[in-house]
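Feature request, filed as a ticket because there's no other form

It would be nice if the structure record came with a short human-readable summary line next to the tokens. Right now we just get the raw output. Example of a typical job, pasted below so the devs can see what we mean:
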Amino acid sequence: MDTKPSSKINDGIDAPLWMFWKRRRYIVVLMAFLGFFNVYSLRVNLSVAIVAMTENRTVHYDNGTVGYEQYFDWSSSLQGYVLSSFFYGYILTPFLGGFISNRFGGNYVFGVGIGTTAVLTLLTPLAAKAGVAVLLAVRIVEGIFEGVTFPCIHAVWSRWAPPSERSRMASIAFAGNYAGTVVAMPMSGVLANAWGWESVFYVFGVIGCIWFLAWMFFVKTSPEVDKWISQREKEFILDSLGRKEGEQEKVQHPWKGILTSVAVWALVVSHFSENWGFYTLLTQLPTFLKDAMHFELEKTGFVSAVPYLVMGILLFVSGYLADWCQLKGYLTTTQVRRYFNCGAFLAQTVFMIVGAFILEPGPTITCITIAVGLGAFAWSGFAVNHLDLSPKSAGVLMGISNTFATIPGIVSPIITGYITSNKSDNEWKTVFYIAAGIYLVGCVIYWFGVSGELQPWSIEAQERREQEKQPTKPIESLAYSNKVSMEDEM
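Raw output as currently delivered:
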């Protein structure tokens, strides 16, 4: 079913690719990028702020004596519960997000999820001062609303992303995760030192609220209801997706096929494995740098941001390269997902082990940076794979995989808190070795189970069989069954 790629983009818009504002779908990508920027800046600010909230401060008393005080006297294990509490709520809603995004529109649910989290972030200082139980409750509710974001964005891509642009559109948007981390970590340290730990939550909460208003105004459910899109671009998107304007879809998800699919479960394991290493570092890296590497608070924020800066940059490269390899015919969709994902996991395994074995500031931070950065190539594997298997069920598939992938966010900080109770070097080595082992397991399982083809159980495959009256067989992914090359822009 392969077709030879054409020699130029064919969306009817007379503008080079870098003039993204000429194409409405790229405005959606930009706003999604900024949305994920907020998702992660709202999520990670506590990882840095908690260092300021619990560190010993020098206090000069009125009688001339000097003492040490903490804003909050929390043990390392209690800090682990505080950092993981977000994920107690987060794990409840990814699956639900896939359903409600199909019913109400992925753009609405995505916006409300992040907007509500921003408002709750503004309330975090009051919650912390009211007691740790109140803080835990607020963080849990934040997680509930953020849990819908990843499934919802796949629902957005299923309506806005031409198959030949999926890898890059998704990768650019997901790069917002790491841009948010890069900005939030050092900025949180600066804010905490300059204006107190409360300012961390106020600043990022306000930024999130501003984004929410812009998203709800500019981004629509689909090209058909966007009043600013050109007729040519609308027709290009709809044709590439095999849809007609005004067509109403009632999606009946093939649950038996989904739950018994080897490709789906390989994807779930891969997502879990990547998130274990990612969440371990996301929540614990500032504490690791302070306890094991002996960095000051403000410096921990800047150093913690470096790996995510590298990953954010490489996400643009990996998404572009993934599409290019497919459009040139060098690799099939399955090969791209397998080689990009498993190559990244294998490299992450090696560098996590080496960094933990050396455990010296320069080499260890370099190894962590390389390991996190190369994770960008995994995101051109598992993170886009849902759309290959069944575009119309992609939101639900992301909901399933993200539910399991949230477990590391709950378990990893707690385990790390108990393992590092004495803050010794050997304890931190154990944390890194566990992450490396999980990366390796994910690499092996995804290598043998991955598929980049449209699955026989998918809604799209069923529709084709009804039209063509052909026997069941795997069908090449929609991502390249209707190829539209972008080689001139490449």
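Something like this underneath would help us a lot:
The longest strand covers residues 57-60.
The longest helix spans residues 24-54.
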